[in-house]
Specification:
Elements: H1 2-7, H2 13-25, H3 29-37, E1 44-49, E2 52-57, H4 87-98, E3 109-114, H5 121-129, E4 132-137, E5 140-145, E6 164-169, E7 182-185, E8 201-206, E9 209-213, H6 219-223
Helix pairs in contact: 4-5
């Protein structure tokens, strides 16, 4: 009984965060990568407090992804784990939907519900605009995009009929007021410009960089719903008769 009571005590998050920060600051990500390539286990840190026992493992990011605020920071996983590449599901889905019709001579938007445990913009970006790659030269280096995206993989404007891809992460009735749809606009000059609703955020490709614009209006305001809709208990109990 004592262990159960201690388990439910509140964990002091500030001390946990500061402890994790000090531990992570003491690690050199490049050295961790080099050690891991030599089969050295990844560094771990265990925190004991108030009956809790939490073990954290540091998985270093590749140099190109460090400092990216949209990239996942924390992963929760069992002893056997894998991080799914969401772009591998997005690209076939968009290709299938985009090929359903012929030339409409009208703006054509493909809607996509992106179901993922950890949805990331970079998965959508890679699927639609292609992977980024760095080329090194004697005089320096330059970034480019591989021709492996929906719009960048073709040279004959085969996908120009699709003006944009509207993405909503994990759509469900209880997330309508929480998720902002994002319209990924076609970079193909042959594509017809798509209309943009004020509740949509937008992205467009400028060179090799992605430019983002926030939605003008919030989804709950446009739908006339409270911000925390739906209200009430998820599974209310009926009064006993």
């Amino acid at each position: 009984m004592e262990s159960q009571v201690r388990w439910h005590r509140t964990l002091q998050q500030s001390r946990l965060k500061s402890g994790l920060t000090r531990w992570l600051d003491s690690l050199d990500p490049d050295q961790v990568i080099a050690d891991h390539e030599r089969k050295v286990p990844l560094p771990s840190h265990t925190w004991h407090e108030a009956g809790w026992c939490l073990t954290f493992q540091a998985i270093p990011r590749s140099p190109g992804k460090r400092g990216n605020p949209s990239s996942r920071t924390i992963g929760v996983y069992p002893s056997a784990w894998a991080v799914e590449d969401g772009s591998e599901r997005v690209l076939p889905a968009v290709t299938h939907k985009g090929g359903k019709y012929g030339d409409l001579e009208l703006p054509f938007i493909v809607a996509l519900g992106h179901a993922a445990d950890f949805p990331e913009d970079e998965d959508i970006e890679r699927a639609l605009y292609g992977s980024t790659v760095e080329y090194a030269y004697d005089s320096g280096s330059t970034l480019s995009r591989k021709p492996d995206g929906y719009w960048t993989a073709t040279y004959d404007h085969a996908h120009s009929r699709v003006s944009g891809v509207l993405v909503v992460n994990n759509p469900a009735p209880w997330t309508w007021t929480k998720n902002t749809p994002v319209l990924w606009q076609s970079p193909d000059p042959a594509s017809l410009p798509a209309p943009i609703f004020p509740t949509w955020a937008t992205t467009q490709l400028a060179g090799i960089q992605v430019e983002r614009q926030l939605a003008i209006r919030s989804v709950p305001t446009a739908l006339g719903l409270p911000e925390r809709w739906p209200t009430g208990d998820a599974f209310p109990r009926s009064d006993p008769r």
